[in-house]
Design brief:
16% strand, two-stranded antiparallel ribbon, 5-stranded parallel beta sheet, Rossmann fold, alpha/beta
């Protein structure tokens, strides 16, 4: 029997847990970040940085991303990390999860399309919170809609002229 093309999360954080994560944890290591502005990892990291989070790029291929020193691995970061935000394929998650455990991360957040239930189970056993198959930027927008200006009729009319 062949492995499924993708798996569904067997467990995921609730909306309340996600809001608590986004509120209380401010240092985010973005694993698999790209320096290309059209990539999701770059856009999400840029958004999080604009919202006041400390964004730590993690990719062995770059020296800096978004004006920040880029580290080759989680283990090479010389200060505590709250959230490990994963922009890698699901099969790359287990060693990232092991590193997250080793460095004492509080949360491992796997972006849309990234699910690894085996890694999630190990993280949970090590008291690390897990979010799978969700985008931090989308979840931020959902949890904190007051951060975004309301679109008014006057705003729309300005574009019609």
């Amino acid at each position: 029997m062949t492995e499924p093309a993708c798996e569904f999360p067997a467990y995921n954080s609730t909306n309340d847990e996600i809001k608590e994560i986004l509120t209380n944890y401010k240092t985010i290591a973005v694993v698999g970040i790209s320096n290309k502005p059209d990539r999701d990892s770059f856009r999400v990291a840029s958004f999080l940085k604009e919202k006041g989070y400390k964004v730590i790029p993690v990719n062995p291929n770059y020296d800096t991303v978004l004006g920040e020193k880029c580290y080759p691995s989680l283990s090479s970061i010389p200060f505590p990390i709250d959230i490990v935000d994963v922009f890698r394929k699901p099969d790359a998650v287990p060693p990232i999860a092991d590193e997250a455990i080793k460095i004492g991360a509080k949360v491992v957040w796997m972006q849309i399309g990234v699910v690894n239930n085996q890694a999630a189970e190990k993280l949970i056993k090590n008291k690390i919170k897990v979010v799978m198959n969700k985008c931090m930027m989308i979840e931020y927008n959902t949890q904190f809609p007051e951060d975004f200006p309301q679109i008014t009729d006057e705003y729309c009319e300005a574009f019609e002229e």
